[in-house]
Every structure is written in structure tokens, then in C-alpha cells.
Amino acid sequence: MAEKYLQIRLKNRPGSGSDDFWTITNDKPCALEDHQILLKMHYISLDPGMKGWMSDKKSYMPPVNLTDVMRAFGVGEVIDSRSDQFKIGQFVTGFTGAQSHAVVDARGFLRPIDPDAAPLSHYMGGLGMTGFTGYFGMTDIGRPKTGETVVVSAAAGAVGSIACQVANLSGARVVGIAGGEKKCNLLIEEFGLDAAIDYKKGPIDEALKEACPDGIDVYFDNVGGDILDAALMQMNRLARIVLCGGVSQYDDWHKAVGPANYMQIVTQSLTMRGFTMMDYSAQIPEGSAQLAQWQREGKVKFLEHIVDGLENFPAAFDTLFNGGNTGKMIIRL
Amino acid sequence: MAEKYLQIRLKNRPGSGSDDFWTITNDKPCALEDHQILLKMHYISLDPGMKGWMSDKKSYMPPVNLTDVMRAFGVGEVIDSRSDQFKIGQFVTGFTGAQSHAVVDARGFLRPIDPDAAPLSHYMGGLGMTGFTGYFGMTDIGRPKTGETVVVSAAAGAVGSIACQVANLSGARVVGIAGGEKKCNLLIEEFGLDAAIDYKKGPIDEALKEACPDGIDVYFDNVGGDILDAALMQMNRLARIVLCGGVSQYDDWHKAVGPANYMQIVTQSLTMRGFTMMDYSAQIPEGSAQLAQWQREGKVKFLEHIVDGLENFPAAFDTLFNGGNTGKMIIRL
To answer: What is the C-alpha radius of gyration for chain B, rounded to an integer number of angstroms?
Structure first.
């Protein structure tokens, strides 16, 4: 069977009410130019933050242009190279785009990975951007201490699952918020958290009060909306909010709703700090080594939700926003 | 004429649609108990943050009970004392309540002041809580550096006027936001700011872009609402937001609207830190000495908006929320 060249391209901006993506069958890429490499993709990462890249609202990266290949992290194997940096047969990760084959400038944001050190899919999750995001957000901004109470939203998600497990190693009381009994059981049984809140089960305010009798010292937020508002009301004086994302608001950034209770930041003298992985790019080797070690020791688990076939990218993307995934959503090609 | 004993008491919580306060004529206070002093009040402070004390929403202080004397800072003269700490004839400032005469426990939050060192009214403004709030918020949280751009909202108000003048001494470019041409002229001519924006004149987004061609590094926010949202869109990467208040949201804290653009905190890696003067109570002597020195040297000006008569407290309070005051609103008795 002939090789298929597939690409996922941006069709509409979020909030259009229509399809987000086109799936395109392409011809074989043209011959490489100097410094370019050709990658055969093995894994493509799906992340809620992609909605930000799809929006034309000012962000930390330029928006993806309509009709362009969707920006995505991926793991690929070098099958052709006109670069001194990468040889055929090597594996790399970075911004490869959502496509079956990628022609990439080797001088860009790419790093070589060792396929024998860990399963390749881990470089999309626990040893990838989402793992580092959970790790640095919790260790550098949250900085939980023994005896403190940490709350993590979307705790069964790609970033949250790392953030809550890292917090758990600090000796703090860790409470995870997730949707559904299955995910909550996982937080307790697999991750060893102190409590889990099923936000679908009842009022989040009451559940947070009950799970955090001493208030909240660190809140790691991935969701925004009602859960952020509820957490704000339980924050202790001088507590920290690690602002990682706001998945409840990603549908249309132009219609986003801010946290109504944000005045608690004043009255409780809170610090709310946002970040992206760009802030920590120099420390990736350190974070990667630490997470890999904890995973080998069984202290941190990498959960992956793998979907086969690039043609399933649009449906898998939607799953990210309806709570259908547990752990890191990854497309396997 | 016999001495009048007046009190302003809380009638309704904010958002009731009815009057906030009762003005009550009282009998002479009873004889003092041990540790109590009797103050004849000279000045009462009016502050937007009082709306927070009037609300029953969780805050940094317990809400004022309905029918109680309204909590307020004041300057009073000791006219009777059963305390070893304060003698008749001394002047003190602290939480005295909005009343013509106050019976206060001398062991509470009171500090003696020197009526010869500065006009008494200054202890309600530049040398009072609002002065310290502007000073510590800017020096400890904002920390502007030469070459950076600082924006201060409500810059002609009690806190903002101190914050923007303190920023101006750092060598940063300072832009003040205020309502009306008169206040904007004051920001440029009296305070020497680099630019002033009249938020009533046109779209705040455009005006901010124009006044801050290099983006914003420090935003000191007193107002929330549209102005905070507009500032969020102009913040530079790793910039700081000093969250001091949100006067546009004080009318009813139960219906407050959060900053819709708060996701910029993530995408630009911003730090938003809130505070109240409680955080700096140990450093008041330092802040007070510095502000007094700057004022003597003409580097910082204390603007006061003085209204005569406690019976004008309710009307003066409303003025705080319709932009009618320039500088610190103070009742003189």
C-alpha cells in the first residue's frame, strides 16, 4: 500500500460554530532544502492550549493562520536530512505540526530523544511539554510545603496529573478535582492523593470546603470558570494561585469570562502567577531527568490516552473539552 | 451651643438599592471603662474599600454588622482617658469609626501622632493608610525600574496619586489614568507624569496603546472592569499587576465581574499580586518617614478633598464612586 501523506489544517477559528479542522491528503513533500529534515511522525500531541493558538487573540505565540497545518508537538523519525544536526534514523520532538510527515528546519525548536530511554509516547506527555508544565508550575510557582493544602483542577488531565503527583511528593495535603467517579478513584488509588472531588457530583464550593478544612495554600488551575471562583473563596492569606490554563474559557477567547471572585486576590493578599513552558525552556533537561527518575521509582505515573490514526485528530481534540480523556491525549500514527 | 454626638451607622449592605447609612444623634457616651479613651474626632477618612467592609462577602476583615457604627479611620484628640498609653490632649489615629466622638480601647489598632509634624488631615491621606497603600504597593510589589512603563488607574485618587508619584521617582515612564481633563492636567502638571489618559474621552484600549508604545511593565490597579481588561492586553511578558482594589466592582460584590482577559496572565507569564495594608503594618514607620520626607522635599504631593461636617458623610461616600473627588476624601468635623 502506498504511503499516505495526511495533514490537519485549520479551517475555522474557535467559536465559529463550524468545524475546526480540515483533513487533507497531500502529495509527497518536495525535495528538502538546506538545514531541512523530513520526519515520519509517530506521535502527535493534543493539548487544550491549542485553542489559544487557533484563536487570533494576542497570546504568547502568533496565531495559526487559517488553512495552515495545525501547530502541534510531535515525535518523528528522521527519514531524510539536509542538516548536520540530525541524521536519518534519529528521533526528535518539537513543533512538527499535525501531519503524517513533516518538513522541518532543523535549527528550530527541536530536540533529539532516545527511543531506548523511554517509550516514545512519553515524550508527548510526562517527558514532554505537559509533564514539564506540571512539574515547573508546581515546583517553581506553587512551592508547596509540608502541612500545606494543595488543590489541582483537571487533576486527571495531562498537566494536572503531573502537578498533583509532584505536589504529593512535597508532603502537602493534595486534593484533586476531576469529573466522574472513575477519575476520582484514580486520583486516590493510583496517585495516592489525600482527597478527590468529583465536580460533576454536586456544588464545588461545598466539596472544596469539606476537602480543605484548613483552606487552600496552593491552587493549580487548569480550568478557570466556576472552579476557579470557588477556589478563590477558600484561599488562605498569602496563598499562591498557579495559573496554567483555563480550559472552560477556551471555546471562544473573545467571550471569555473572568473570575468574578478575583477581589479575593486583594483581600487575602494572594499571588496569581501565570506561566507557559517558554519560561522554563532552559531547564527542560533538569525537569526531564527528575520526572524520568520519579517515574522509574514509581513515584509519578504517566497516564496516556492514545488514539490511533491522524484522521481521528478532530474528534480526539473535541474529547479534550468534554472531559473524555484521562491523562495525556496522544495520536499514534 | 451644646456638643452634638453624631454617628454614621450601617443601614443596608451594598447593592440593596436603598440608603447605605443612618445618621444618628446620640447621647453623651457613658463613663469610660479601664483601658478606654474618649476621642473627639477631627477627621474621618472615606475610602472606596469601605464597600468591602459593608458587604457580607468573605474579606480580610469581618463585615460591619447592620446598625453598627460604620468602620472608618479617623484622627481624634484624647479628651478623656482610663489608659496608661494615652493622655488627655494627645492625638491618635486608627479605627475610630465614623462618629463625632469615639470610645476606643487603647490597646487596639491606634497610633499616636504629632500634630506639629504635619497637618492632622495628612494622617488620613499621604501619611495614612492610603498613602502607605500606594507606597508599599508600588515599592514592594510593582518595583518599577528605569526604562520600564508603569500605568496607574484612578491616578488622581487617594492611593493612585501616591502610587504614581512614587513610581515617577523610580525613573520609569509613568502613565496615569483618570476621569476628566482637570484630573489629567493635574497628573501632568502637578505630579509630572509622562502621560495621562482620560478614560471618559474615548476607547481606553486605543489610548493605552498610544500612551504605552513599549507595552506595560507594571500596572497598579484600583478599578478593575474595562480598564483592567484593557491593561491586560498591553502587558509585557513577565510584567507585574499590583492589585490594590476594584472600585468599579464594589457596588455589589455578589455580582462582581472578573477580568475577561485574565488568560493573558498565562500567555504573558504575568504575576498579579494583591495586598492590603495589613501586610505592611510592621513597616508603617518606614513608609511614613519616607513619604513625609518626599513631601517636604516637594517630590510627592498630598492631595486632599475635604468635606466639612459628619452629616455629609453619606453624600461624600457616594462621590468616591462617581469620580467626584480628586485626592483623598476626608470629612472634617
So the answer is: 20
**CA angle in degrees (0–180, nearest 5) for A214-A269-B292:** 145
The answer to whether residue A56 is domain-embedded is yes
CA Rg, chain A, in Å?
A: 20
Q: Which residues of chain B lie closer than 8 angstroms to A136, CB-CB?
A: none
Q: Give the closest-approach CA distance of A28 to chain B in angstroms.
A: 36
The per-residue pLDDT for A61 is 87
B227 and B247 share a domain?
A: yes
What's the CA angle centered on A56, arms A55 and A60, to 5 degrees? 85
Range of the domain at B159: 137-278
Among B36, B68, B71, residue whose Cα is nearest residue B52? B71
A290 within a domain of the structure (yes/no): no
Given a cut of 80, is residue A262 above it in pLDDT?
A: yes
Nearest residue in chain B measured CA to CA from A265: B274
C-beta of residue B148 within 8 angstroms of C-beta of residue B286: no
Inter-chain residue contact A260 with B258, CB threshold 8 Å? yes
Instruction: Reduce the DSSP state of residue B95 to 3 states and report it.
Output: strand
In this structure, are residues B148 and B142 in contact, taking their beta carbons and an 8 Å threshold?
Answer: no
Number of neighbours of residue A153 by Cβ within 10 angstroms: 32
- Three-state secondary structure call for residue B267: helix
CA distance B92 to A14: 59
- The mean pLDDT value for A58-69 works out to 89
Residue A123: φ, ψ to 5° = -70, -10
d(CA B249, nearest CA chain A) in Å: 9
Q: What angle do CA B276, B277, B279 make, to 5 degrees?
A: 80
* pLDDT higher than 80, residue B250: no
Q: Is B154 on the interface with A (CB under 8 A)?
A: no
| Chain A nearest CA to B77, separation (Å) | 31
Among the partner-chain residues B59, B258, B272, the one whose CB lies closest to the CB of A257 is B258
* Mean pLDDT within A322-328: 87
In a domain, B65, yes or no: yes
Please state the pTM of the whole predicted model. 0.92
Taking one residue from A and the other from B, the number of pairs with CB-CB distance under 8 angstroms is 119
Quote the cell numbers at residue A236: 488562605
Beta-bridged to residue A8, according to DSSP, are A23
| A135 shares its domain with A273 | yes
Largest Cα separation within chain B, whole Å, is 65
Residue B5 has which C-alpha cell?
A: 454626638
pLDDT band of residue B327 (cuts 50, 70, 90) is confident
> Which cell goes with B74?
479617623
Is the residue at A295 inside a domain?
A: no
Strands B235-243 and B216-221: parallel
Q: Are strands A36-45 and A101-105 parallel, antiparallel or unpaired?
A: antiparallel
DSSP per position, B306-333:
EEE-GGGHHHHHHHTTTT--SBEEEEE-
